[in-house]
Amino acid sequence: MSLLALLNQRFAAALAAVGAPDAQPLVQMAGRPEFGDYQMNGVMGAAKALKLNPRELAQKVIDAVDLQGIATALDIAGPGFINIKLADAWLGQRVQAALSAERLGIAAQPRQRVMVEYSSVNLAKEMHIGHLRGGIIGDSLARIHGFLGQEVIRQNHVGDWGTQFGMLVAYMVETRNHGEADFELKDLDTFYKKAKVRFDEDAAFADTAREYVVKLQGGDAEVLALWKQFVAISLEHCNAIYQKLGLLLDNGDVRGESFYNDDLPVIVSELREQGLLTEDQGAQVVFLDEYKNKEGEPAAFIVQKQGGGYLYATTDLGAVRFRTRELKLDRCLYVVDSRQALHFQQMFLVARKAGWLSDAASFEHIGHGTIMGPDGKPLKTRSGDSVKLGELLDEAIERAYQLVSSKNPDSDEASRRQIAAAVGIGALKYADLSKNRNTDYIFDWDAMLSFEGNTAPYLQYAYTRVKSIFRKVGDWDQNATVLPVEAAEHALALELARFEDTITQVARDSMPHFLCAYLYNVATAFSRFYEACPVIQDGVTNPSRLKLCDLTAKTLSTGLGLLGIEVLETM
Ligand code: ARG
Predict the structure, then answer these.
(1) Ligand 1 closest atom vs CA 131
(2) Residue 188 CB coordination number (10 Å)
(3) Which of 63, 337, 347, 535 gives a 20 to 30 Å CA spacing to 194?
(4) What atom of ligand 1 comes closest to residue 347's alpha carbon?
(5) pLDDT at 183
(6) Is residue 163 very low, low, confident or very high in pLDDT (cuts 50, 70, 90)?
(7) Ligand 1 centroid, distance to 298 Cα (angstroms)
(8) Which of 32, 64, 86 is the last residue of a domain?
(9) Ligand 1 centroid distance, CA of 173 (Å)
(10) Residue 348 located in a structural domain
(11) Among the listed residues 386, 329, 435, the one whose alpha carbon sits nearest the alpha carbon of residue 117
(12) Domain hosting residue 60, numbered range
């Protein structure tokens, strides 16, 4: 059981014993060292309900609570907080247990089927910086749920459908007839621009493009085959990026918008059958009283345009229906830019009204902010174009290579390249994951590649430092008891024991920055420990301390791994 769960359980029992069975124990990490390791904050609420003096009730709780062997001191503070100091020996046992158990002793959660939908790029264009955050955050969440024993379905809901694909396929056919198509498709953006120029300048070409859209939607085999080729080439481009960025996504995770094409008329007719649909200026809409505009009119959620075309929203309703009915998800996380928040709120609401979504499943929009330039506006290239993701990743690796080379001028080229890839990509990912995902942040190469502060290079380096200790020691007693008696040892053991609480919180709230903050705390606690408590003294190894080092290394590598960041044995 996690530390917090255990303390809460024991205090809940104590509260029940003193006559407050409904009170919440509210145990938290202590805010300051003088408050001990944890603090129990539930006495005041209970005292109020029972009309008792809180400090007197606190004393009763202390007398009643069973923390034999777990806590050494329980003190009343302020109006009725209980400060908790954990026992060194007990923390030592937790460290030992974590080292010998699977998953560092972290319990599997009740098994759920969890979908993490992320990346979800539009295949008509090249990937750009706007795709970075969702990719990184989604990938980390998928890893974390997998680690906690969930059945994870990664999903790449790519934009592979819609009118622009008629134009792109038409241009593909045209350039192929000139014998150059596949070469140009490598540069998707140029290809798109050229197709657009042809569309705008040549009426006959535009007619062909429109004809292709109709054929595509009607399931014409020939045009479908061409479209498939286009999609495949475009996905190759995405996969190359995913690989370089170390995302788990591959073609097996792709289920694009096109997949729901046949369901779209059904979505509209089911909404109609349920009396949810209104015709408004030729369009089919669901009016939502829950979302009123300034004039007090309900918002119109459009599911079919005038003329019969379907929209992004219709496809999303199809996807919800498929995910609950066919995939029977317990939870679905849509990792998508926060600017789509209203779309998701309204779409989930419509899905609920239609009965495609119920309380049995938790569908959540996991929004994220924007990556900004130094001017506080969304990051662009000097010429004002969007920053291509492929180029950004190359730059991260190149910058890391310069850095690594300046630090280790003597190490060989191949290992410098290898370190650079891990550090460059790690820095980019960590800079993102360590920020609260709800906020925007300013992109800063120097800050993310710094070896000081809450950065990937700092943590990767901390890991190599711990590992280097093991290269210095010979045989040591693996069966020794861990007894963290010094203050710095106690603090490190406590930090290590908090891993499970951290991961469960991240999984619940989809907030990877809590994990980053935690790993940074582990690394700094280790630093203090390493300065104050020699692991090898006069040639003699202290096995208790070595075990703390061992769990530190394993916690850092596991935690960074859950963020999708590699560790290295040496740097
Ligand atoms: N392809 C969309 C875009 O680029 C994002 C899709 C997000 N996922 C979803 N189920 N709507 O904006």
Answers:
(1) 4
(2) 21
(3) 337
(4) 11
(5) 66
(6) confident
(7) 25
(8) 86
(9) 27
(10) no
(11) 329
(12) 3-86
